[in-house]
Records
---
Amino acid sequence: MKKLLFLILLFVSASAYAQQGMELNLWPQGPQTNNGDPTDMAKISIFLPKKSQSTGRAIVICPGGGYTHLAFEKEGTAWAPFFNSLGIAVIVLKYRMPHCVWKVPAEDAEEAMRTVRRNAKSWDIDPQQVGIMGFSAGGHLASTIATHSKGDAAPNFQILMYPVISMETGVTHQGSRDNLLGKNPKRKLVNDYCNEQHVTHATPPAFIALANDDKAVSPINAVSYYEELCQAGVSASMHIYPTGGHGFGILQSFPYHLELMMELRRWLQSF
């Protein structure tokens, strides 16, 4: 009974924090790398909590979509009320599709991280408390930033939902690999984007969640990443739910939706 009451209060509180997002063009002067589609513009949608409730923490969210499209609501904007209710700012990234120009998504994600820190004072954000979150292919992008990026582009923590991690054939999501790296990428490029190979002691703490019956992205991706985090001494929390498949995002139809939200909340409050 107490657990049920807690969950009801949690979601009533979250709904009360729904904010109108501000949208910004990520590259007002044009991007550094062209993906070949002039209509595909990188943007961020910013959702700030009430100033009186702000913790100074922020999360840049990278929705998934196999590097061909974005599940922008269920893996992006719909998360804003939940995080805002915890005093956390949400920045949802509309990154450009790579069309095999592999630099493009990471370039956008790094600029989103830098943009948050450049605006930290006016958005009431602590630049040392900026994390990154990603779903599926967006999880590959988020883990790329977590394992590769430096300086103002590097996150302080990471949240990965049913992520693509590896680019190895037979383990990766093949469509994501093809769309990011092309059909026949060189061995070095594959290795560069097998993010489990790039975990170090400096990789930020991680929360990882997925369903055991995910048929789209093999759980091996997340498990291998978690193993490397443990080997490197990085704090990590992994949650594998028995069922739920792939792409559940924030949908309440996911059988373990309440457990996921409660466990994520507890993890965020643990540091």
---
Amino acid sequence: MRTPHAPAPPRPARRRTPARSAAAPAAILAVASALLLALVAAEWRPLLDLDGDISRTTHRWAVTEGGLTRAARVLTDWVWDPWTMRLLCGVAVIWLVTRHAARWTALWLVLVVAVGTALQQGLKAAVDRERPVWSDPVDTAHYAAFPSGHAMTATVVLGLLLWVLRRQGAGPALWRTALAVAVVSVTGVGLTRVWLGVHWPSDVLGGWLLGALVVVAAVAVHRRLRPVTGEDPRGRTGGPRSPSVTRNRPPRPEPFTSDDPPRRPR
């Protein structure tokens, strides 16, 4: 007599590893950054015309709207200045070391910000794009134009700090507040640079794209080298287990977010 075959157990759903989930955004950002860099370096006429049209319009507004221009100078020179962002990064490093014993993450944060600054300055020197020149300037700036250092530094620092907050288990209220502040700051600093006539719009766009690329790449490296407890270096946390296995297994501890390995009970 023919016995019926038992139905095959359903296959567990494949989990997307952090490396795979970061690959697509990183590739998109890399292609967009490289394309914009090539167009700026080649002095592509349609891009230059668009930059000029936007900059001339905003400069006329900046000259006539003195109050807004003064506010933009305060914001860009003090609140969203690159050195203010680096100081905020330093505060975060102290917080990570003293409150969470996350020395590796603190060092990673410092190194990524330093690499982002070096990349920014290297591209400025390589492209050597001139800044806008006006007969009646409302502000001044030094060094080459592309990419915008203000926009790139704010994107790198605030993007990394958002990820660190999420990793350290920030509450919903703190997370939403930090996200809103970061979005307003990154957007606002780019707009002030164009409003004050010290950057072309494509300089700011380049700073945003390159800053986001640095953040995505740095987070992928961190998750690869220092995964949260319960996640292997490739990001897998394990699929569904059979009841016979999970019944006798002790409850899994909460994710350990310190960089030091958890101590075993004696």
